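Question (not urgent): is this output format expected?
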Amino acid sequence: MIDAPEIAATPARTNSAPSPADWKKIVLKYQEPSLGRAIGQMANTFIPLVLLWVAMYFTLPNWWLTMPLALLAGVFMIRVFIIFHDCGHGSFFKSNLANDVVGFISGMLTLTPYFQWRWEHSIHHATAGHLDKRGTGDVYTMTVREYQAASLWDRLVYRLSRNPIVLFVLAPLALFAVRQRFVTPNASSRERNSVYLLNLALLITGTCLSLIFGVKNYVIIQLTAMMVAGSGGIWMFYVQHQFEGTYWAAGKEWDYTLAALQGSSFYKLPKILQWFSGNIGFHHIHHLSPRIPNYNLEECHNANPIFNEVKPITLLTSLKSFSLRLWDEDSKKLVGYGHLRTLRPSQ
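Got this back:
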Protein backbone atom coordinates (compact mmCIF):
# COMPACT_ATOMS: atom_id res chain seq x y z
CA MET A 1 0.00 0.00 0.00
CA ILE A 2 1.14 3.51 -0.75
CA ASP A 3 0.23 6.29 1.62
CA ALA A 4 0.97 9.98 1.74
CA PRO A 5 4.15 10.97 3.58
CA GLU A 6 3.76 11.72 7.28
CA ILE A 7 2.16 15.15 7.24
CA ALA A 8 3.15 16.07 10.77
CA ALA A 9 6.77 16.12 9.64
CA THR A 10 6.21 18.89 7.09
CA PRO A 11 7.35 22.42 7.90
CA ALA A 12 5.08 25.24 8.97
CA ARG A 13 2.50 26.23 6.38
CA THR A 14 1.65 29.55 4.88
CA ASN A 15 -1.80 30.94 5.56
CA SER A 16 -2.99 29.56 2.22
CA ALA A 17 -2.30 25.95 3.17
CA PRO A 18 -5.03 24.13 5.07
CA SER A 19 -3.62 22.09 7.94
CA PRO A 20 -3.98 18.29 8.09
CA ALA A 21 -6.66 18.80 10.72
CA ASP A 22 -8.67 20.72 8.13
CA TRP A 23 -8.69 18.04 5.48
CA LYS A 24 -7.84 14.67 7.05
CA LYS A 25 -11.26 14.23 8.62
CA ILE A 26 -12.91 15.23 5.33
CA VAL A 27 -11.07 12.72 3.13
CA LEU A 28 -11.29 9.84 5.60
CA LYS A 29 -14.68 8.49 4.52
CA TYR A 30 -13.81 8.84 0.83
CA GLN A 31 -10.81 6.54 1.29
CA GLU A 32 -13.14 3.58 1.83
CA PRO A 33 -13.20 1.36 -1.29
CA SER A 34 -16.53 0.14 -2.64
CA LEU A 35 -16.59 -3.41 -4.00
CA GLY A 36 -19.72 -2.69 -6.03
CA ARG A 37 -18.32 0.42 -7.66
CA ALA A 38 -14.99 -1.27 -8.33
CA ILE A 39 -16.62 -4.25 -10.02
CA GLY A 40 -18.93 -1.94 -11.96
CA GLN A 41 -15.95 0.07 -13.19
CA MET A 42 -14.14 -3.08 -14.24
CA ALA A 43 -17.24 -4.27 -16.12
CA ASN A 44 -17.75 -1.03 -18.03
CA THR A 45 -14.05 -0.86 -18.90
CA PHE A 46 -12.75 -4.38 -19.53
CA ILE A 47 -15.85 -5.74 -21.30
CA PRO A 48 -16.02 -2.95 -23.92
CA LEU A 49 -12.28 -3.32 -24.52
CA VAL A 50 -12.65 -7.06 -25.18
CA LEU A 51 -15.64 -6.43 -27.44
CA LEU A 52 -13.64 -3.86 -29.41
CA TRP A 53 -10.93 -6.47 -30.08
CA VAL A 54 -13.59 -8.96 -31.18
CA ALA A 55 -15.12 -6.32 -33.47
CA MET A 56 -11.69 -5.52 -34.94
CA TYR A 57 -11.20 -9.18 -35.79
CA PHE A 58 -14.45 -9.28 -37.75
CA THR A 59 -13.86 -5.97 -39.54
CA LEU A 60 -10.45 -6.95 -40.89
CA PRO A 61 -9.17 -6.40 -43.56
CA ASN A 62 -11.37 -3.28 -43.88
CA TRP A 63 -9.04 -0.85 -42.11
CA TRP A 64 -11.54 2.00 -42.53
CA LEU A 65 -13.64 0.14 -39.95
CA THR A 66 -10.83 -1.40 -37.91
CA MET A 67 -8.77 1.73 -37.28
CA PRO A 68 -11.55 3.74 -35.57
CA LEU A 69 -12.12 0.73 -33.31
CA ALA A 70 -8.38 0.58 -32.53
CA LEU A 71 -8.41 4.29 -31.67
CA LEU A 72 -11.38 3.77 -29.35
CA ALA A 73 -9.61 0.79 -27.77
CA GLY A 74 -6.73 3.14 -26.98
CA VAL A 75 -9.10 5.49 -25.19
CA PHE A 76 -10.44 2.61 -23.10
CA MET A 77 -6.85 1.67 -22.26
CA ILE A 78 -6.51 5.05 -20.54
CA ARG A 79 -9.40 4.05 -18.30
CA VAL A 80 -7.78 0.65 -17.71
CA PHE A 81 -4.63 2.46 -16.61
CA ILE A 82 -6.59 4.39 -13.99
CA ILE A 83 -7.76 1.08 -12.52
CA PHE A 84 -4.14 -0.12 -12.63
CA HIS A 85 -3.10 3.13 -10.95
CA ASP A 86 -5.64 2.77 -8.13
CA CYS A 87 -4.62 -0.82 -7.52
CA GLY A 88 -1.03 0.40 -7.17
CA HIS A 89 -2.17 2.76 -4.42
CA GLY A 90 -4.09 -0.03 -2.72
CA SER A 91 -7.27 2.01 -3.07
CA PHE A 92 -9.38 0.19 -5.68
CA PHE A 93 -10.30 -2.76 -3.41
CA LYS A 94 -10.05 -3.33 0.32
CA SER A 95 -8.14 -6.55 -0.35
CA ASN A 96 -4.43 -6.23 -1.08
CA LEU A 97 -4.54 -9.47 -3.04
CA ALA A 98 -7.41 -8.23 -5.21
CA ASN A 99 -5.52 -4.99 -5.88
CA ASP A 100 -2.39 -6.91 -6.87
CA VAL A 101 -4.21 -9.39 -9.13
CA VAL A 102 -6.29 -6.77 -10.94
CA GLY A 103 -3.25 -4.50 -11.02
CA PHE A 104 -1.20 -7.15 -12.79
CA ILE A 105 -3.99 -7.87 -15.31
CA SER A 106 -4.44 -4.15 -15.97
CA GLY A 107 -0.69 -3.88 -16.37
CA MET A 108 -0.80 -6.56 -19.07
CA LEU A 109 -3.38 -4.52 -20.97
CA THR A 110 -1.35 -1.32 -20.60
CA LEU A 111 2.09 -2.97 -21.04
CA THR A 112 3.24 -1.77 -17.59
CA PRO A 113 4.91 -3.91 -14.88
CA TYR A 114 2.78 -3.55 -11.78
CA PHE A 115 5.19 -3.67 -8.84
CA GLN A 116 7.98 -1.71 -10.56
CA TRP A 117 5.59 1.04 -11.58
CA ARG A 118 4.04 1.10 -8.10
CA TRP A 119 7.45 1.61 -6.51
CA GLU A 120 8.43 4.43 -8.90
CA HIS A 121 5.03 6.10 -8.58
CA SER A 122 5.28 6.13 -4.80
CA ILE A 123 8.46 8.18 -5.18
CA HIS A 124 6.57 10.61 -7.40
CA HIS A 125 3.91 11.12 -4.74
CA ALA A 126 6.49 11.65 -2.01
CA THR A 127 8.47 14.21 -4.03
CA ALA A 128 6.01 16.00 -6.35
CA GLY A 129 6.85 19.69 -6.51
CA HIS A 130 10.16 19.22 -4.67
CA LEU A 131 12.95 20.91 -6.62
CA ASP A 132 15.64 18.88 -4.86
CA LYS A 133 14.05 15.52 -5.70
CA ARG A 134 13.22 15.69 -9.40
CA GLY A 135 13.82 12.88 -11.86
CA THR A 136 11.78 9.88 -10.73
CA GLY A 137 8.24 9.35 -11.97
CA ASP A 138 7.90 12.90 -13.30
CA VAL A 139 8.42 15.00 -16.42
CA TYR A 140 11.88 16.37 -15.77
CA THR A 141 11.91 20.15 -15.56
CA MET A 142 15.00 22.36 -15.50
CA THR A 143 15.14 25.61 -13.59
CA VAL A 144 16.09 28.80 -15.42
CA ARG A 145 19.47 28.88 -13.67
CA GLU A 146 20.19 25.27 -14.49
CA TYR A 147 19.34 25.88 -18.13
CA GLN A 148 21.53 28.97 -18.30
CA ALA A 149 24.46 27.07 -16.78
CA ALA A 150 23.99 24.05 -19.05
CA SER A 151 26.18 23.32 -22.06
CA LEU A 152 24.89 23.90 -25.57
CA TRP A 153 24.50 20.13 -26.01
CA ASP A 154 22.54 19.73 -22.76
CA ARG A 155 20.25 22.60 -23.76
CA LEU A 156 19.63 20.98 -27.13
CA VAL A 157 18.82 17.61 -25.54
CA TYR A 158 16.48 19.27 -23.05
CA ARG A 159 14.67 21.25 -25.76
CA LEU A 160 14.31 18.08 -27.81
CA SER A 161 12.92 16.13 -24.84
CA ARG A 162 10.33 18.85 -24.22
CA ASN A 163 9.27 19.09 -27.86
CA PRO A 164 5.56 18.13 -28.13
CA ILE A 165 6.20 15.63 -30.92
CA VAL A 166 8.86 13.88 -28.87
CA LEU A 167 6.96 14.14 -25.60
CA PHE A 168 3.51 13.07 -26.80
CA VAL A 169 4.23 10.96 -29.90
CA LEU A 170 7.65 9.33 -29.63
CA ALA A 171 7.92 9.12 -25.84
CA PRO A 172 4.79 6.95 -25.41
CA LEU A 173 6.21 4.39 -27.85
CA ALA A 174 9.60 4.45 -26.15
CA LEU A 175 8.08 4.22 -22.67
CA PHE A 176 5.46 1.52 -23.10
CA ALA A 177 6.99 -0.59 -25.87
CA VAL A 178 10.65 -0.41 -24.82
CA ARG A 179 11.40 1.18 -21.42
CA GLN A 180 8.84 -0.85 -19.48
CA ARG A 181 10.43 -4.08 -20.70
CA PHE A 182 13.54 -3.40 -18.62
CA VAL A 183 14.25 -3.40 -14.90
CA THR A 184 14.90 -0.11 -13.14
CA PRO A 185 18.34 0.06 -11.47
CA ASN A 186 18.19 -0.48 -7.68
CA ALA A 187 14.82 -2.22 -7.98
CA SER A 188 14.10 -4.95 -5.45
CA SER A 189 13.54 -8.58 -6.42
CA ARG A 190 9.75 -8.11 -6.37
CA GLU A 191 9.95 -5.18 -8.79
CA ARG A 192 12.39 -7.06 -11.00
CA ASN A 193 10.22 -10.16 -11.07
CA SER A 194 7.18 -8.08 -12.01
CA VAL A 195 9.01 -6.95 -15.15
CA TYR A 196 10.11 -10.48 -16.08
CA LEU A 197 6.66 -11.94 -15.43
CA LEU A 198 4.92 -9.24 -17.43
CA ASN A 199 7.31 -9.71 -20.36
CA LEU A 200 6.57 -13.42 -20.36
CA ALA A 201 2.81 -12.77 -20.20
CA LEU A 202 3.04 -10.28 -23.07
CA LEU A 203 5.05 -12.74 -25.15
CA ILE A 204 2.38 -15.41 -24.67
CA THR A 205 -0.62 -13.13 -25.30
CA GLY A 206 1.13 -11.40 -28.19
CA THR A 207 1.87 -14.76 -29.82
CA CYS A 208 -1.73 -15.94 -29.38
CA LEU A 209 -3.22 -12.71 -30.76
CA SER A 210 -0.76 -12.76 -33.67
CA LEU A 211 -1.97 -16.25 -34.57
CA ILE A 212 -5.58 -15.02 -34.43
CA PHE A 213 -5.19 -11.65 -36.17
CA GLY A 214 -2.00 -12.21 -38.13
CA VAL A 215 1.31 -10.69 -37.02
CA LYS A 216 1.06 -7.57 -39.16
CA ASN A 217 -2.56 -6.86 -38.21
CA TYR A 218 -1.90 -7.43 -34.51
CA VAL A 219 1.14 -5.12 -34.47
CA ILE A 220 -0.74 -2.33 -36.28
CA ILE A 221 -3.73 -2.58 -33.95
CA GLN A 222 -1.62 -2.80 -30.80
CA LEU A 223 0.64 0.09 -31.77
CA THR A 224 -2.35 2.25 -32.71
CA ALA A 225 -4.16 1.62 -29.44
CA MET A 226 -0.93 2.05 -27.47
CA MET A 227 -0.18 5.37 -29.17
CA VAL A 228 -3.61 6.76 -28.32
CA ALA A 229 -3.43 5.51 -24.73
CA GLY A 230 0.18 6.57 -24.26
CA SER A 231 -0.20 10.02 -25.77
CA GLY A 232 -3.41 10.70 -23.87
CA GLY A 233 -1.97 9.35 -20.64
CA ILE A 234 1.27 11.32 -20.86
CA TRP A 235 -0.67 14.49 -21.69
CA MET A 236 -2.85 13.97 -18.61
CA PHE A 237 0.20 13.36 -16.44
CA TYR A 238 1.99 16.34 -17.96
CA VAL A 239 -0.80 18.85 -17.43
CA GLN A 240 -1.41 17.58 -13.89
CA HIS A 241 1.84 19.21 -12.77
CA GLN A 242 2.99 21.43 -15.64
CA PHE A 243 0.52 24.29 -15.60
CA GLU A 244 0.43 28.01 -14.96
CA GLY A 245 0.38 28.67 -11.23
CA THR A 246 1.83 25.30 -10.20
CA TYR A 247 3.90 24.85 -7.06
CA TRP A 248 7.57 23.99 -6.69
CA ALA A 249 9.81 24.52 -3.69
CA ALA A 250 13.20 23.43 -2.41
CA GLY A 251 14.54 22.18 0.89
CA LYS A 252 12.54 22.95 4.02
CA GLU A 253 10.26 25.31 2.09
CA TRP A 254 8.60 22.33 0.38
CA ASP A 255 5.20 21.52 1.88
CA TYR A 256 3.20 18.37 1.16
CA THR A 257 -0.23 20.01 1.38
CA LEU A 258 0.74 22.94 -0.85
CA ALA A 259 2.35 20.54 -3.34
CA ALA A 260 -0.94 18.65 -3.52
CA LEU A 261 -3.43 21.53 -3.62
CA GLN A 262 -1.34 24.00 -5.63
CA GLY A 263 1.13 21.77 -7.45
CA SER A 264 -1.42 19.27 -8.76
CA SER A 265 -4.06 20.54 -11.14
CA PHE A 266 -7.83 20.42 -11.01
CA TYR A 267 -8.33 19.56 -14.68
CA LYS A 268 -12.00 20.25 -15.33
CA LEU A 269 -12.85 18.11 -18.33
CA PRO A 270 -16.10 17.51 -20.23
CA LYS A 271 -18.00 14.64 -18.62
CA ILE A 272 -17.19 12.11 -21.35
CA LEU A 273 -13.45 12.80 -21.02
CA GLN A 274 -13.73 12.80 -17.24
CA TRP A 275 -15.28 9.32 -17.49
CA PHE A 276 -12.62 7.92 -19.80
CA SER A 277 -9.85 9.42 -17.65
CA GLY A 278 -11.31 7.95 -14.48
CA ASN A 279 -11.77 11.29 -12.67
CA ILE A 280 -8.00 11.73 -12.49
CA GLY A 281 -8.52 15.39 -13.39
CA PHE A 282 -9.25 15.84 -9.67
CA HIS A 283 -5.54 15.42 -9.24
CA HIS A 284 -5.23 17.85 -6.35
CA ILE A 285 -7.48 15.54 -4.32
CA HIS A 286 -5.56 12.47 -5.45
CA HIS A 287 -2.22 13.90 -4.34
CA LEU A 288 -3.68 15.08 -1.07
CA SER A 289 -4.88 11.54 -0.33
CA PRO A 290 -3.74 8.77 -2.73
CA ARG A 291 -5.88 6.26 -0.81
CA ILE A 292 -9.08 7.72 -2.30
CA PRO A 293 -10.24 5.49 -5.21
CA ASN A 294 -10.90 7.30 -8.47
CA TYR A 295 -14.65 6.73 -8.22
CA ASN A 296 -14.74 8.84 -5.01
CA LEU A 297 -12.56 11.75 -6.12
CA GLU A 298 -15.30 14.02 -7.43
CA GLU A 299 -17.46 13.52 -4.34
CA CYS A 300 -14.53 14.36 -2.10
CA HIS A 301 -13.76 17.47 -4.14
CA ASN A 302 -17.33 18.66 -3.70
CA ALA A 303 -17.39 17.87 0.02
CA ASN A 304 -15.69 21.00 1.34
CA PRO A 305 -15.03 24.58 0.19
CA ILE A 306 -11.28 24.27 0.83
CA PHE A 307 -11.00 21.95 -2.17
CA ASN A 308 -13.17 24.15 -4.38
CA GLU A 309 -10.79 27.05 -3.82
CA VAL A 310 -8.41 25.35 -6.22
CA LYS A 311 -8.69 27.16 -9.55
CA PRO A 312 -9.57 24.69 -12.33
CA ILE A 313 -7.89 24.49 -15.68
CA THR A 314 -9.91 23.59 -18.76
CA LEU A 315 -9.13 21.95 -22.09
CA LEU A 316 -8.59 25.42 -23.57
CA THR A 317 -6.47 26.88 -20.79
CA SER A 318 -4.44 23.69 -20.47
CA LEU A 319 -3.03 24.27 -23.96
CA LYS A 320 -0.83 26.99 -22.48
CA SER A 321 1.14 24.21 -20.82
CA PHE A 322 2.76 23.53 -24.18
CA SER A 323 4.71 26.79 -23.84
CA LEU A 324 5.86 26.27 -20.24
CA ARG A 325 9.36 24.79 -20.21
CA LEU A 326 11.41 26.02 -17.22
CA TRP A 327 10.91 26.83 -13.56
CA ASP A 328 11.94 30.40 -12.71
CA GLU A 329 13.20 30.41 -9.11
CA ASP A 330 12.87 34.19 -8.81
CA SER A 331 9.27 34.60 -9.94
CA LYS A 332 8.35 31.10 -8.68
CA LYS A 333 6.48 30.11 -11.80
CA LEU A 334 6.85 28.05 -14.95
CA VAL A 335 8.00 30.06 -17.96
CA GLY A 336 8.74 29.55 -21.63
CA TYR A 337 12.07 29.88 -23.37
CA GLY A 338 11.11 33.41 -24.38
CA HIS A 339 11.38 34.41 -20.74
CA LEU A 340 15.16 34.02 -21.01
CA ARG A 341 15.34 37.03 -23.35
CA THR A 342 13.90 39.27 -20.62
CA LEU A 343 16.65 38.42 -18.14
CA ARG A 344 19.80 40.46 -17.60
CA PRO A 345 23.03 38.74 -18.71
CA SER A 346 24.10 38.34 -15.09
CA GLN A 347 20.98 36.36 -14.42
